[in-house]
Amino acid sequence: MDIATPQADVEVRGTSQTALKKAILEHLAYSVGKDADHAVARDWAVALSLAARDRVIDRWMQTTREVYRTDAKRVYYLSMEFLIGRLLSDTLSNLGILETAKAALDELGVRYDTIAESEPDAALGNGGLGRLAACFLDSMSNLGIPAYGHGIRYRHGLFRQKIGDGWQLEEAEDWLAQGNPWEFRRPEVHYPIGFGGVVAAAEGDRAVWTPGETVLAAAFDTPVAGWGGHHVNTLRLWSAKPTGGFDLGHFNQGQFLEAAAPEVLAETICRVLYPDDTTPEGQELRLKQEYFFTSASLQDLLRRFVNHHDDLARLPNHAAVQMNDTHPAIAVPELVRLLVDDHGIGFDKALEITRGCLAYTNHTLLPEALERWPRGLVGAILPRHLQLIERIDQGFATVVAKAQPPVDFEAVRILDTGGDAVRMGNHRINGVSALHTDLMQRTVFHDLNTVLPGRIVNQTNGITPRRWMKVCNPGLSKLVAQAIGDGWVGDLERIEALAPFADDAGFRADFRTVKQENKRRLSDRIVALTGQKVDPDAMFDVQIKRLHEYKRQLLNALEAVAHYQAIQQAPDADWQPRVKVIAGKAFPGYEMAKLIIKLINDVAKVVNADPAVRDRFKIVFLPNYNVSLAEVIIPAAELSEQISTAGMEASGTGNMKFALNGALTIGTLDGANVEIAERVGADNIFIFGLTADEVAAARAAGHDPCRYIDASPALAGAIDAIASGAFSPDDPDRFRAITDDLTGHDYFMVTADFHAYAAAQRTVDGAYGDQDDWTQRAVLNTSHAGWFSSDRTIRGYARDIWDVPVGTG
Questions:
Q1: Which residues form the catalytic set?
Q2: Is 183 inside any structural domain?
Q3: In the chain, what percentage of residues exceed pLDDT 90?
Q4: Which 8-state DSSP code applies to residue 144?
């Protein structure tokens, strides 16, 4: 929201139990239109949300007036995803009124947990990228950094995942069907976004772009309160609207499709997250989406600046733009275009201003995730931008020519492969873990690092403790607060004071009691979602993340098959009971990932039905993994599976959430696992497998998976069982693509790491058998996870990249 002139402070609404009860009833009547006798759970949830929102607004307006009064520099965080989850509990907790609200509802005869469950997850993201953006918004508010999050207001988001006969089924998510009480529509804030058309030269560096089609970007704002509610920032999401009204003329002539075409274009842009871009049409839509929200955000930024400042050369002193991965990278030529064509600034000066404002976070070393757009597509959709990209590329050639040692221009230019594609990732860059940044400098961005030394810096990811312990794990939060106070909620590094309590037998007993209650809650959720009963006294072994071959859910499944076969061969042995929980979505076009989901479910079907196994081993795949499900799973987890191929996971944040909530990690030395191992200590983590350098060396030498299969009867037996149809008797060849890859190419080194992984799992079994020792290790994981706070990460961005001051948290 924008309030340009100071106003008298409004009276902050009361937060007592009586005040909240009155506000809830008033909103139930006058905003929802229901009386208490006939209201359903969703009605109560909306009424409470609006009451909470009122109390956020008071602080929101005060924050905005103060930012304008001090003319503070703002951060604009551009991201295709904001996986914010449910907002009710998080907002009430940050305002310090969650327990008061529960008590007010109790007076009204309403259970808080019931109404909280009625709030849909905002379908604005998919995985770690989007959840990181949400954590960062929370931390920027907590630290008092004036900031806007900018993204797309998706109608359907990614998809709702169902499991049918073990297969992933995709259905449209409809999270906005009952409205969103947290957002404000801003009809006065809208910007034209053009595509295609023609470009004509104008005076100087300027050009006149006449788009072939245009939509409007309309703003919807959601307030994001920091801990204590002292600072409230804004998540501004863009929804596409047609530029004109419905074409009644075409409609009356029977040209129904033509009449609806502008609305269809606008609705399509904001309908789904990550449309399948394996087709030319999908590629075009994806590029339009990226440009749509990026252009709207930059136009918004410039409008705000010029309303209060005269000299655009000073824009970098007032605005820092962070691009979350390559999706908003079109911001580089777009900001140049706006400065040159709309504001009459010369090209060289516009590029200098742009470089002073923009920075880019890289999240992956996977080549397919470093976006490259066909030059022809960019020229067709964004013709003016292609002109500017070509000019930027030409200027960069002069910089590259001065590099020492010399660098091949083709290796670093924006227009790669002979100029046939536009590469989106060359800019001021930060990695998201120490290992990831080092690998960026040494591998995919090696030549760029030579040309522009010092431009690639590290900012290890973090998580917000407000949602990922205070809200999702109230039992543990209360226990920790009783031991060391609650200062860790606003400054997680204070949780280090908990470490001595690992030696306190009474505290360990209380810690186990909290974990057991969380396990019972997850057990109930597993029954509700799958019908499968599990033993909450068994070890809960969890892998929850996006389905991708490099994340190696397949390694987990293979070891599960081998473990099952071992139980079959020695049914009377003293096996450690274990519940293996797996969840995650595969992109609709990613056939191998979807086949792995089917394999996991087929293996689970056989294992869970085998009377010889009983409760000693269960496997469950939980459908439709999202933030709310994670908030139930993570507090219950005891073993955190972080088993990606070393050198391929940029950071991870699930690993941090698990450690903070007292789970021990089994993982490779990949991403932030390296730093977690350093923080929690080698005795409190289970590391196995090849290192990133060893993976690279093995690939260079010619990885031979059969060598590992021949050396491991357990691995060979697991692959043979899958290949023979032991888990798919109706279709013995169902998993041929998986077994052929394992015995042939195995790019993700599943076979190479299998033996070490299986051995580490048996070490885990032995360690878990001593519950007191295991709990001591778990407490140390919690106490040493404080460094992995997103507050610490944001302080690093503020200091090293954005040049903005921060509070103390």
A1: 363, 545-546, 551, 653, 657
A2: yes
A3: 83
A4: T
